[in-house]
Amino acid sequence: MLILLPPSEGKADAGTGRRLDLDKLSLPELNPAREEVLAALVALCGGPDEAAARAVLGLSEGQRDEVRRNARLPQVATAPAARIYTGVLYEALDLPALPPDATRAARRSVLISSGLWGAVRLTDRIPPYRCPIGAKLPGPGALAAYWRRVLGPVMTEAAGDRPVLDLRSGAYAATWAARGDVADRTVTVRVLHEREVDGVPVRSVVSHFNKATKGRLVRDLLLAGVRPRTADELIGALRDLKYTVVEQPAPAGRPRQVDLVVTQL
């Protein structure tokens, strides 16, 4: 199974080891694109107009240090992506506490989308950075569109003949959409919180809750040692783990779409 995750806005404050080496990252076919985006980000953040850089990246005046760190990314210490991403989803996933078998499965299965790197595995050493997928960098332009032109064949090859569990948020999901045989094996997930209002069940998306649930979902799958061969087996595994799964209609040739309905916050 291939599990696709979004990155987190929250990241570790600093790396712990050697500098960035693109040649050591997974999916080396992405390196020319990574080099272009990295160079554009470093040039933007190292230029004379810090306010303009902050505007492009959606940062406040109090986040000037993020811009300055971006300007030095080739020299900044790195750490495995599993340690760099620290947001709500990754807190719930709690990778450091996984037993060895589940850790090995995570390293094989998980790919993390990124506005800067395209996609990375948990073991890839990267520096802390700020580069949201919604940014429009001088040169590469709008990053979602940029990566959409690049990721197709690389992600299709990474999926191989495995089912795909796509937990990316909308902006990152737009960088690659499964098609053909891969789409038949892909399941996209939306998390809905159900509460009762005037005696009527109401379902809605709650951002923080959505991220935490996805993290717990991946953790549960890894701990259970789930190895589905088809989208049907993957959906069955979610139900076996006691998740309430509601399938939604999907056009032919597109990924299966399911809602996970949860009631506790």
Descriptors:
single chain; 265 residues; alpha/beta; eight-stranded mixed sheet; two-stranded antiparallel sheet; 12 strands; globular
Outline the structure in words.
There is one protein chain. The protein starts with a strand and ends with a strand. Helix 6 crosses helix 10. With 265 residues, it is an alpha/beta fold. It is 40% helix and 20% strand. It contains eleven helices and twelve strands. The model has no long low-confidence stretch (mean pLDDT 94). Strands 1, 3, 4, 8, 9, 10, 11 and 12 form an eight-stranded mixed sheet that branches. A two-stranded antiparallel ribbon has the order 2-5. The chain has a two-stranded antiparallel sheet with strand order 6-7. Strand 9 and strand 10 form a beta hairpin.
Could you list the spans in which at least 5 consecutive residues all have pLDDT below 50? Answer: none
**What are the secondary-structure elements, in order, as H or E?**
EHHHEHHHEEEEEHEHHEEHHEE
Helix content: 40-55%
Please provide the count of β strands. 12
Major β-sheet profile: 8 strands, mixed
User: What is the overall silhouette?
Assistant: globular
Average residue pLDDT: 94
Strand content: 15-25%
Rg computed from alpha carbons, rounded to a whole number of angstroms: 19 Å
Distance between the termini: 28 Å
